[in-house]
């Protein structure tokens, strides 16, 4: 992970923390569960970019139309970035994270989400705890954030705004956690980081 410190220097404007939420993997089912929200925060400017179902649902769109429009807007956002660096928490799996977003986008005919352009760093590789505990232990938790299972429950209850708030909270918390990592100012507990 030390290479990230070298890669990010002078490229803060190209770096984004990113997090997403979906209907969940907890009950089996789809390879790419429905996506509720994606939040990206520019590391250099701290500008928050949110792509969320509820933004389209309030316009009277159906759930499926809303997800399609949300993913199209996210893909458009992504395609306008020049050599982005994404800092995330466990979004590099085969069935979740970037691949799940890509698969879900493909379900809607958005086949131009090219993952080869992504330079990413999994911040969870630095920690021995889960994301919420890491945010709390390093004073990076700003708002209420939910565990993935709880986000899935909220999704199923159509509490999409709650899920979006949690997703944004995680993306914003990752900015602070990443800042502490870059500056070597993490909590001083050998069980917290490698």
Structure characterization notes:
This protein is an alpha/beta fold. It has a single domain, classed as 2-Layer Sandwich (Nucleotidyltransferase, domain 5), CATH 3.30.420. 40% of the residues lie in helices and 15% in strands. Strands 3-2-1-4-5 form a 5-stranded mixed β-sheet. Helix 4 links the parallel strand 4 and strand 5. The radius of gyration is 16 Å and the shape is globular. The C terminus is likely disordered.
Brief synopsis:
The chain has 194 residues and is of the alpha/beta class. α5 packs across α7 (160-182) and α6 (148-156) runs antiparallel to α7. The protein has one domain (2-182): Ribonuclease H-like superfamily/Ribonuclease H (Nucleotidyltransferase, domain 5, 2-Layer Sandwich), CATH 3.30.420.10.
CATH superfamily: Ribonuclease H-like superfamily/Ribonuclease H
Regions with little confidence, pLDDT below 50 for 5+ residues: 188-194
CATH class reads Alpha Beta
Give the averaged pLDDT, no decimals. 86
Helical amount among residues, as a percent range? Answer: 40-55%
Spatial order of the strands in the main sheet? 3-2-1-4-5
* Number of DSSP helical runs: 7
Quickly give the structural class: alpha/beta
- The tally of strands reads 5
CATH level 3 topology: Nucleotidyltransferase, domain 5
How far the N terminus sits from the C terminus, by CA atoms, comes to: 10 Å
* Biggest beta sheet attributes: 5 strands, mixed
Order of helices and strands: HEEEHHEHEHHH
- How many domains, in number, for the residues? 1
> Any idea what the radius of gyration is?
16 Å
Q: Report the sheet-strand fraction.
A: 5-15%
Q: Characterize the overall form.
A: globular
CATH architecture heading: 2-Layer Sandwich
């Amino acid at each position: 992970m030390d290479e990230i410190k070298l890669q990010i220097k002078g490229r803060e404007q190209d770096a984004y923390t990113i997090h997403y939420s979906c209907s969940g993997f907890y009950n089996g089912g789809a390879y790419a569960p429905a996506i509720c929200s994606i939040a990206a925060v520019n590391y250099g400017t701290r500008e928050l970019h949110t792509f969320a179902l509820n933004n389209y649902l309030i316009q009277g769109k159906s759930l499926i139309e809303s997800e399609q429009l949300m993913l199209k807007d996210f893909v458009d956002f992504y395609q306008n970035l020049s050599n982005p660096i994404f800092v995330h928490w466990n979004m590099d799996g085969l069935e979740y994270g970037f691949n799940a977003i890509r698969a879900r986008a493909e379900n809607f005919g958005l086949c131009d989400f090219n993952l080869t352009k992504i330079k990413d760093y999994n911040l969870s590789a630095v920690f021995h705890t889960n994301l919420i505990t890491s945010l709390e232990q390093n004073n990076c938790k700003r708002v209420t954030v939910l565990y993935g299972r709880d986000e899935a429950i909220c999704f199923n209850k159509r509490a999409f705004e709650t899920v979006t708030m949690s997703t944004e909270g995680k993306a914003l918390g990752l900015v602070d956690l990443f800042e502490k990592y870059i500056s070597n100012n993490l909590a001083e507990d050998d069980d917290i980081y490698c």
